[in-house]
Amino acid sequence: MALRAPATSFKNLRDEFDPLHDNTRRGWHQRPLRSNRQLVLADFCDASDDALMEFVEAIFRGESEVLTEAVDILSTRPRFAQNVAERLLTGRLAEDYFLKHSQTIVGFDGHEILDLRWSARGYDFGIRSNPEIAIETKGLNSLKGEILFTDREWAEAKTRRTSYWLVVVGNVGTEPSFRVFLDPHATLDVKCRHRTSITASWHSHVSLARS
């Protein structure tokens, strides 16, 4: 094949990442993600699916600019892998738990919940009958631990204040329990950290000249 590797090699790679995504395949859920996979995941976790696919297709097309800007960075700069895989997995489990128990957690059943996870709005869910409310979910493996807000999420929390509801689900893999934080921007003690990751921007040349 074009990549000069057996098809089973790519199936094994797919199986490694399956537990982190919402699909019917469980993959290798019984073992931690390898450290080099963790590094790649940490670098690309903020990129959209479209941006990631464009990156891969550009590599296949042999575009030197992409190879220089991204592949060289991945292979040469010193990096430290945060446990992004665990964060993504606990986050997905927390989202699933919220969708199943939204009536108990926030007083609205599933028909009232708007799934906005892929809209990049800075929160996961909305409420049909009350569009001012924004709901963000976070997951923990235990009853206490560190949660992470993206800069977009934190900015949205600052803007919406009491209309921004943070749902934290603990013990997501065993016996889940939850707590709702109203106005997390005012009620939580946070620290800002900076890290480097692969980000995508879309460029186009346009002309205002009339033919």
Provide keyphrases for this structure.
alpha+beta, 211 residues
Q: Could you please describe the fold and organization of this structure?
A:
The protein is α+β, with helices and mostly antiparallel strands and 211 residues long. 39% of the residues lie in helices and 12% in strands. The protein contains 7 helices and 5 strands; from the N terminus they run αααααβββαββα. The protein has helices at 7-17, 35-44, 49-60, 64-76, 84-106, 151-160, 184-187, and strands at residues 113-115, 125-127, 134-139, 164-170, 177-182. It has a 5-stranded mixed β-sheet with strand order 1-2-3-4-5. Helix 6 (151-160) links the parallel strand 3 (134-139) and strand 4. The longest helix has 23 residues, at 84-106. The N and C termini lie far apart (46 Å). 18% of the residues are buried. The mean pLDDT is 83.
